[in-house]
Amino acid sequence: TLLRKGGTNPAYLAEEEWCCGLLPGFSGDPELEREMAIHNVKAIEKAGAKTVIMSCANCYRTFFSDYPALVGELPFKVVHAVEILPDLMKSGKIKLKSKTKARVTLHDPCHFGKQHIGRNHDLYNQTRDVIKYLPKVDFIEMRNIGRWSACCGGGNSVTSTVTPDFTDYHSSLRCREAKEAADILLTPCVRCVENLSRAERKHGIGVEVKSLIEAVAEMAE
């Protein structure tokens, strides 16, 4: 929706798009991750795409960091939505409108950090640039941000599957930290949304957990 409003008509692979392979990779099955990587790269290359845009932090990290090691140099550019949205918002190609004021804070996903996607590369600033253009938003940082951001506890769904109580503890802890700062907790990671929102509902913490990309889409005219 956002890309179309911004003047780009994106294509997608439908059933030819497999899982990125992160989960088997982190679960101890690198050969299955390699199989998925080979399939996805071939499918994207066949489609003729020169740029692949991710809305998932985990997929972004897997394509950006794992795929070159698994299959070699990629024949396309990999970007996350937070890298392109600020320019579209700043230029006015995506116009945003909000009826109510909101106090928001941001949860940085683990996979946006240098430790995951490269020594001289992270997406912390780009994520904040997106929030900067949201109308009627009072942005308040939590105590632990950026490289020192607390994990949502999901552990690439491996931790949340094997030790759900451990995940619940860390997710609820992070939600409580967010509640101290604001009323809405935004994050660009769909896995973090899943874990944090589950803990928030279970414990009634009182902070609304939302996907950053969906929040932008909701405001787009």
Describe the structure.
By secondary structure, the protein is of the alpha/beta class. The chain has helices spanning 2-5, 22-27, 30-47, 57-71, 81-90, 114-117, 124-132, 158-162, 164-181, 190-203, 212-219; strands at 51-54, 77-80, 102-106, 137-139, 184-187, 208-211. Strand 5, helix 10 and strand 6 (208-211) form a beta-alpha-beta unit.
Order of helices and strands: HHHEHEHEHHEHHEHEH
Strand content: 5-15%
Helix content: 40-55%
End-to-end distance:
11 Å
Largest beta-sheet details: 4 strands, parallel
Unreliable residue runs: none
User: How many β-strands, per DSSP?
Assistant: 6
Shape: globular
Q: What structural class do the secondary elements suggest?
A: alpha/beta
Radius of gyration: 18 Å
Average predicted local confidence, pLDDT: 93
Adjacency order of strands in the biggest sheet? 4-3-5-6
Treating each run of at least 4 consecutive H or I residues as one helix, how many helices? 11
Describe the secondary-structure layout.
Elements: H1 2-5, H2 22-27, H3 30-47, E1 51-54, H4 57-71, E2 77-80, H5 81-90, E3 102-106, H6 114-117, H7 124-132, E4 137-139, H8 158-162, H9 164-181, E5 184-187, H10 190-203, E6 208-211, H11 212-219
Parallel strand pairs: 1-2, 3-4, 3-5, 5-6
